[in-house]
Design brief:
The structure holds two protein chains of two kinds. Chain A is mainly β. Chain A is about 0% helix and about 50% strand. In chain A, a hairpin with a 6-residue loop joins strand 3 and strand 4. Chain B contains no helices and twelve strands. Chain B starts with a strand and ends with a strand. In chain B, strands 2, 5, 6, 7, 10, 11 and 12 form a seven-stranded mixed sheet that branches. The chains are: A mainly beta, B mainly beta. At the A-B interface, strand 3, strand 4 and strand 8 of A face strand 6, strand 10 and strand 11 of B.
Amino acid sequence: GESVGLHLPTLSVQEGDNSIINCAYSNSASDYFIWYKQESGKGPQFIIDIRSNMDKRQGQRVTVLLNKTVKHLSLQIAATQPGDSAVYFCAEKPSTGANNLFFGTGTRLTVIP
Amino acid sequence: DVKVTQSSRYLVKRTGEKVFLECVQDMDHENMFWYRQDPGLGLRLIYFSYDVKMKEKGDIPEGYSVSREKKERFSLILESASTNQTSMYLCASSLNRGYTFGSGTRLTVV
């Protein structure tokens, strides 16, 4: 899962396998969550989002799961491809206060051909 | 397609120079943000703006200022660049929830 520190968590998977990237968020008042993908040398790109009134949302080859009880978010990528290699960030938005997102430090996913 | 454009991909500046990083969005978004991204530290918010001529300090505003004279443009200014401001700078905009990011500007201060 994501953590604050000097080392980025890493995950290596074989091409074709499923990937699960985890994120522990900090604010129980957060009501909106997003996963971003950042490829080398590029800005983060939106992948999928979920509101706190849901516990699962599916997109194309991706699924986000939300467990509010333990403040845990995960991103599942089905049939991982080399193009999925990137750093993945989760972000949370508190329901109160400023309209800002708070980001995790990211997990680097490497897909082995 | 929604777009956030950062004017430079790579910049090299000398210590003490005044540096302008420009960001333009074409989505009529109210909110704009400047982050810096450093290895192991993730995205750190420098400044943000919810409206024209409005600005708010983020988590690490020291050594930076911003300008939002028009809705579509949000500029980050390094008043006197220092080597510890070498970083990847990311601009983002949003309407009310998710952000759209630019491609980033990698700034090196020598």
